[in-house]
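Project standup — Tuesday

K.O.: blocked on the structure for the chain from last sprint. Re-posting the sequence here as requested.
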Amino acid sequence: MDGPVICLRLEAASAFSRLLGRAILICVLAGATPPAEAQTNQDQAEQAARARELLLLARHAIGLESSQPPLWSLSAAGGFRRFVKYISVQSPTKVVERQRVLSGKLQVDFLLPDKFRRHISNRGISGRRYAYTEVVNGALAWRDPPPPVISSYRDNRIIDVGDIERSREKYAEDARQQLAFYTLGWILETPPALPSEFLYAGEVRTDDRILEAIIVNGPNGFRPVLLLDHKTHLPFALVVALVEPKRETVIVEVASVSRQFITDTYARARREREARRTPAQRRELQWRFSDHQPVDGLLLPRRITTFIDGEITEELTISQFKVNQPINLRRFEGRPEVR
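H.V.: unblocked you, prediction finished:
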C-alpha cells in the first residue's frame, strides 16, 4: 500500500500497511500444515483476547459499561457537507475543473439489540434533491426507495430472476455495512446481522499520538480497521482499504440554442469520461471521529470526517443525540426489494 493512510505521516502509513499485511498473513497461514495452523490459532486467540481487552477499555471510556440503565436506544440527527470535485464540460472546446459543497441531513436510530436505521436527504450536483433510508431489522436489511436491479448482461434492459435476488442481497449487505460504521464508531459493535470477529493488530504511531489497531473481520469482505486512542481509549477512526478505479464526475453545463453545439459538447463529455477512466487501484477510506462530548452519561463523537486517500470528502456534524428514548417501531418497517 503506497501513499499516506488516514492523513498521517508516511511512517504511520507504513505501519498501517504492515498491519494489513499481518491480517493477510493470518488468512494464509490458516491453511498451512498442522503445526503452523496450531501456532496461527494460538496467535489468533491472543489477538482476539487483546482486542476484547481494548474494546472493554473503550466501552468504559465511552460510558457504556457504567450507564444505568443500560443503553437500549440511541438516536442522532445532524447535517453534513459533501466536498465534490467534478469536471464541467461547457463547450466542445472548454473543460473546467470545479468544486462544490453540497449540504444534506442525516437521521440515525438504533433500537438495540437488532434494529438500525439511517435516513439521508441530500442534493446532487445538478441541484436535484433525493432521499433514501437504509434499515437493518433482525436478519433483514433493505434500502427504501428500492434501488434498480443490477443486470448481469451488457444490455441493462435485460434482467432475470437471478439478477433480482443478487441485487436484493447486494443492497441488503450494503445497508448492513453502512450502518455498521455508525455502530462501531458509537457503541463499538456491529449489528447482529453482520457478525464480526475482532483481532488486535498492533500499534500505529503518529506525530502526536499512539493508536491501537483492531481488525474487524466480517462477512462478504467487510474488513475495516478500528483505531483506538492509546491514552483515552476512545475510537479515533475506522479505515478501509479499497481496490477500485478512481472515478471522476464529468457533467455537461451548457446553454445554447444550437443543436449541433449541444451535440458536440456531449460528445466532448463522452471523450472526457473515457480519457479520465483509470484502472482499479488501492485506495484508503477513513472515518475519523472527533469532538467527543458527554450525552446522558455517554461520551459520543459529534463530528465524523470522511477522507479518501487523505483528502476530505465529507464532514458530518451531529446536532442532537437522544439516549434511551422511545423510537416508533414503524421506522424499522418495510421489506427488501428492488425495482
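K.O.: great, moving the ticket to review. The CA atoms of residues 90 and 255 lie 8 Å apart. DSSP finds four helices and 13 strands in the chain.
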